[in-house]
Amino acid sequence: MVTAGGNSWYNSLQFGLAKRLSKGIQFQSSYTWSKLLDETQTQQSSDRAGYRADSVHRHLDKGPAGFDVAHSWRFNTIYRFPQMTPGGALGKIVNGWWASGILSFQSGYPFDVRMSNDRARTQQGTISANRPDLVPGRNNANITSGASTGCLGVPAGTKIGAPNLYYDPCAFTVPAIGFLGTAGRGILRGPGFANLDLSLAKDTPLRFLGETGKLEFRAEFFNILNRVNFGTPGIGGGGGNNAGNVLAGRADGERPLASAGIPINTSTTSRQIQFALKILF
């Protein structure tokens, strides 16, 4: 059954701060603390975010939306350096410089883990969402940080949250045949995001092109700190409720899949630098 039915709930605190240009500096800052719950966005098989545990009981999939971001902060600024000398050849070199930057922080996207087989016998074909059982006492805090408790194929004490293993696959087990797993939708949070972009520019007046004529030089640095922002395990960067499969779901007590919990992508590129020269008139 594929329907257009669904519900969503959104609540947030939004805060903004702005300083208009004075004494050569201006900036803007915004922060949002929010929570977005829904029952999945779609039931189409082409969108893994729409997979449901039971197509006729939407409430079983109520959880954080795949694009829910609990915390998001942005800050941008422009600063024009003071005039150092009134004019002449030296003035053309040291005057007209300005810099700008954008600083971004946000928490990770929610995701859940699944099994690759129809253990619950839902007979929903490719749009089934078979989730495993959650081991008692496990939650997002101790599944995505610390060390693994150990299970078949994963030694106890294996570091969790590292690039090689983002979450502990041993926190999940195969449920009994014909039963839905106890692990809820969107119970885990993917890696957060932090990035800094900077630019340095210089304006040199070209009076022969009129009052607004100028030559602009720009040096731009994207991800200037060269920080690695890992994507959600199984889907790379971006939202969605498909974090790959943690178990095959064929038999009791089976070991986690070898790919479980391993980030396969980054959500940003490495440091990039570009230069530009532009004439404005």
Written account of the structure:
This protein is mainly beta and 281 residues long. The chain has one domain. Helices cover 4% and strands 35% of the residues. The chain is built from two helices and 16 strands. The chain has helices at residues 88-94, 140-143, and strands spanning 8-22, 25-38, 63-64, 71-80, 97-106, 110-111, 114-115, 133-134, 146-147, 159-160, 172-173, 188-189, 193-205, 214-222, 245-247, 272-280. Strands 1, 2, 3, 4, 5, 13, 14 and 16 form an eight-stranded antiparallel sheet that branches. A two-stranded antiparallel ribbon has the order 6-12. Strand 1 (8-22) and strand 2 form a beta hairpin. The protein is elongated and about 85 Å long. 26% of the residues are buried.
Q: In a nutshell, what does this entry contain?
A:
By secondary structure, the protein is mainly beta. It is built from two helices and 16 strands.
Notable traits:
281 residues; mainly beta; eight-stranded antiparallel beta sheet; elongated
Write down the overall mean pLDDT: 87
Radius of gyration: 25 Å
As residue ranges, the low-confidence spans are: 44-48, 236-242
Which bin fits the share of residues in helices? Answer: under 10%
State the order of secondary-structure elements, H for helix, E for strand: EEEEHEEEEHEEEEEEEE
Q: Beta-strand percentage?
A: 35-45%
